[in-house]
Amino acid sequence: MCFQRLNHFPLFLTFFLLFHHATPNPIKTVVVMVMENRSFDHMLGWMKRLNPAINGVTGSESNPLSVTDPNSKRFFFKDQAHYVDPDPGHSFQAIREQIFGSNDTSANPPPMNGFAQQAFSMDNTSRMSENVMNGFLPDLLPVYKTLVSEFAVFDRFLSFVLFLTPSNACEHLWIIYSWLVRWFASVPASTQPNRLFVHSATSGGATSNVAAKLAAGYPQQTIFDSVYDAGLDFGIYYQNIPATLFYRNLRKLKYVLKFHPYDLSFKQHAKEGKLPSYTVVEQRYMDTKVFPANDDHPSHDVYQGQKFVKEVYETLRASPQWNQTLFLITYDEHGGFYDHVPTPARGVPSPDGIMGPEPFNFTFNRLGVRVPTIAISPWIQKGTVVHGPNGSPTPTSEYEHSSISATVKKLFNLPSFLTKRDAWAGTFEGIVQTRTEPRTNCPGGKGTFYLSDLSFVLCQNTKRRQLRASYTQLARANLQNKSQTAEWIVKNCIAAALNPVSVAPVHSVDSLPRREPKLGKRMFCSEDTLKLSLETLKKLPTPVKIREGGPNEDAQMSEFQQELIQLAAVLKGDNILTSFPGKIGKDMTVKQGKDYMDDAVRRFFEAGRYAKKMGVNEEHIVQMKPSLTTRSSKSSNRNP
Ligand SMILES: *[C@@H]1O[C@H](CO)[C@@H](O)[C@H](O)[C@H]1NC(C)=O
Ligand SMILES: *[C@@H]1O[C@H](CO)[C@@H](O)[C@H](O)[C@H]1NC(C)=O
Ligand SMILES: *[C@@H]1O[C@H](CO)[C@@H](O)[C@H](O)[C@H]1NC(C)=O
Ligand SMILES: *[C@@H]1O[C@H](CO)[C@@H](O)[C@H](O)[C@H]1NC(C)=O
Ligand SMILES: *[C@@H]1O[C@H](CO)[C@@H](O)[C@H](O)[C@H]1NC(C)=O
Ligand SMILES: *[C@@H]1O[C@H](CO)[C@@H](O)[C@H](O)[C@H]1NC(C)=O
Questions:
Q1: What distance in Å separates the CA atoms of residue 363 and residue 188, rounded to the nearest whole number?
Q2: CA 89 to chain CA mean position, Å
Q3: Closest ligand to 105 CA?
Q4: Pick from 244, 333, 471, 524: most CB atoms within 10 A?
Q5: CA angle, corner 179, sides to 177 and 183, nearest 5?
Q6: What's the chain's Rg over C-alpha atoms?
Q7: Which residues face 523 on adjacent strands?
Q8: Is the pLDDT of residue 469 over 50?
Q9: Which ligand sits nearest to residue 122's alpha carbon?
Q10: How many of the other CB atoms lie within 10 Å of CB of 196?
Q11: Which ligand 4 atom is nearest residue 323's CA?
Q12: Assign residue 296 a region: left if phi > 0, alpha if psi is -120 to 50, beta otherwise?
């Protein structure tokens, strides 16, 4: 058995949190990462097995094949999610059917019963229905499994029961400490409208991915502009192409130097403590053999996504800026996968009064399906639970993508909201305002540990039972000898971990103290070898490959990838060609598309840097010509 830290402490903390936000804002850097197309239940639903407070699934959730047939075959939610291909439906109509089971949107709360039926309409072999009614086992997503345990997950319920449940597994010991609130996609629609909401709190009326408009660029004010106007810095670390260039403003010359190739710059800037106030990390959207996509978009391997999250986390963790960083990972939309939490369908304001296109004339009065969101910061209290924005700032407020700009506005004291939507969205700056100093025991750290974290380390190991035994015995030995140094314990725990046979059998676990032993709080490891082994152990777990075989780089490009190609065409000046937009990219394979993008992006930024040097008006956007010459045009009169 492990030591139980506890019992009423977290309860007290929750209370404290709601009414007392005393600590001033410690966050100077917000890092945002938007993954692709997965629902909360699909990714994190089964984490409920590790922590009952997570509003996930039990397996009793089901959807009928036909909503109108009471005797219909039912699909129960399973834990067999693995590699998913093809892509389930996530158009406006498809999502309406998933949420309401029909075209009638009057039900409140929505029954969330049309996922299997909608999938069946796309693939009548039932394979897709099974796919959308499935979630990942936590062990397949080991990085999230750890992050969920250490930091905030935006989910729903506050569970008092949790803290009173005795835990006799080490996993429970550490998994218990997390934040739980709920977070929805901003629009019940596909990728791009939701991605637009993330940094601008509106999609400018878009309810689908409109390639021509995306290529021309959406004109609204973004959080990047607000941050910049307030004299703060922002930066976008891109891989194939920055999808943030779908915001027209970001193409302006004044922002050219805000874009950095991830591979060359991200680790370097983090190491030098130079990450900007608002930092966006973009994935590889193109799946090639040498550089597999890591955006979690089906059919890409989530293993790559896990590796990427781990890399970004560990980079931030090692940065001198770590103590002032808040790292957010969210998913743009649910990608057609089932989620059991009814999407809020009342009291949601239109951001800007712009109505969606016919035939739906959507007024942006409903949110999308719940998606996974994880907040990470050393300022987030391990052991605190919060549920939803709690009627603030309005009684109907929820967490959704606009909560990012709303929270950034508060953290950075920006003068105004972007739209009515971020003015309404719940903010979560409270989660970083309860501690008086940052945690020093986050995974991936160096040298300083709490005893409870050591159990985490050791429990990660395969020989769990023995290791737990060794650990508890050592801890117990220490309790009996107050002068035992912490270093000694750590060293011996490691020795025990590496060679469990060398320690004597454990005493009855029942005789162990119920509380974490008090060891004078911290333990410092001075020996280099010890540090090394601890560091290795303390890294986030290494994910394993899920997809068999590698990327098919000769495949045709997906819709999303074609939108990116059209963006690349605009950057490169090929949009003047008669083949634009319809034909551009249609005949390209994924590999060719990637090469085309790489070239377009490189040229666009090169030309931008040159124009900037030449003193061209910074409000302008560089317009390339297919002939490779460069001219600058006023930003307002370009493109169809
Ligand atoms: C829902 O609307 C679509 C068109 O948007 C139509 O094709 C479909 O038949 C309708 N379904 C039902 C159940 O009315
Ligand atoms: C599936 O669709 C095919 C072709 O549209 C049809 O021939 C077949 O009968 C359908 N199967 C089921 C189970 O509905
Ligand atoms: C995810 O979103 C993009 C954009 O809507 C779309 O093209 C894609 O098909 C969606 N689903 C998947 C699995 O990609
Ligand atoms: C972060 O803060 C902790 C606690 O104050 C301190 O021990 C640690 O050295 C700091 N880390 C960095 C990178 O500044
Ligand atoms: C949508 O709006 C258009 C133009 O405002 C109108 O002609 C049409 O009837 C509306 N459609 C619906 C379904 O309300
Ligand atoms: C307690 O620990 C100290 C430091 O490791 C050691 O020198 C001492 O012998 C121990 N005492 C007993 C009774 O084990």
A1: 11
A2: 21
A3: 1
A4: 333
A5: 150
A6: 25
A7: 449
A8: no
A9: 2
A10: 27
A11: 1
A12: left
